[in-house]
């Protein structure tokens, strides 16, 4: 009597670990092996929040659908709406995401961006697995030396969110062309 080992299913909805089961199956007298891999929903961690999304979703959409934003200050209103031209949705990403495309790569070469910042345009980045995302100050999110923005819950209503930058900074930042 052959032993058939079935696939192992995640115990809870949203489990993000791969679970693999290999079992010998009899077919026409020969033995085959079947590997079943189950993926849960990726989790995006951003400014103290954890957001579940579907694999392949655009990072900018994931943040905005959760009531968050990859944009700082006035660029929340004034941006290219996801066409990889303004460069203001840039974030640092650690995790499984899509590769950098040519359009995105080209924009990240234009100041105030710089390849050394190692940022991604969230409007061009697809979420593949769990990712940790950081946003830096400045209208393009390029003020790396200042450190990432704090969790949104830590920003008291009486305190100014560092993500909110004024127009003077906008003007000076626009003319930047060097690495901090
Ligand atoms: S929204 Fe303009 S580059 Fe992403």
TrEMBL record:
<feature type="compositionally biased region" description="Acidic residues">
    <location>
        <begin position="153"/>
        <end position="180"/>
    </location>
</feature>
<dbReference type="InterPro" id="IPR012675">
    <property type="entry name" value="Beta-grasp_dom_sf"/>
</dbReference>
<dbReference type="InterPro" id="IPR001041">
    <property type="entry name" value="2Fe-2S_ferredoxin-type"/>
</dbReference>
<feature type="domain" description="2Fe-2S ferredoxin-type">
    <location>
        <begin position="42"/>
        <end position="139"/>
    </location>
</feature>
<dbReference type="InterPro" id="IPR036010">
    <property type="entry name" value="2Fe-2S_ferredoxin-like_sf"/>
</dbReference>
<feature type="region of interest" description="Disordered">
    <location>
        <begin position="139"/>
        <end position="180"/>
    </location>
</feature>
<protein>
    <submittedName>
        <fullName>Ferredoxin</fullName>
    </submittedName>
</protein>
<dbReference type="GO" id="GO:0051536">
    <property type="term" value="F:iron-sulfur cluster binding"/>
</dbReference>
<dbReference type="Pfam" id="PF00111">
    <property type="entry name" value="Fer2"/>
</dbReference>
């Amino acid at each position: 009597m052959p032993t058939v080992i079935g696939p192992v299913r995640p115990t809870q909805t949203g489990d993000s670990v791969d679970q693999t089961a290999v079992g010998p199956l009899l077919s026409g007298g020969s033995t085959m092996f079947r590997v079943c891999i189950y993926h849960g929903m990726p989790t995006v961690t951003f400014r103290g929040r954890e957001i579940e999304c579907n694999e392949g979703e655009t990072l900018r959409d994931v943040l905005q659908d959760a009531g968050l934003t990859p944009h700082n200050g006035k660029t929340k209103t004034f941006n290219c709406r996801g066409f990889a031209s303004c460069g203001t949705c840039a974030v640092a990403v650690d995790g499984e995401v899509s590769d950098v495309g040519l359009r995105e790569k080209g924009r990240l070469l234009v100041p105030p961006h710089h390849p050394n910042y190692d940022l991604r345009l969230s409007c061009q980045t697809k979420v593949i697995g769990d990712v940790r995302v950081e946003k830096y100050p400045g209208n393009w999110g390029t003020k790396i030396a200042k450190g990432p923005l704090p969790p949104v819950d830590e920003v008291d209503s009486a305190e100014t969110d560092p993500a909110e930058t004024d127009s003077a900074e906008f003007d000076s930042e626009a003319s930047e062309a060097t690495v901090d």
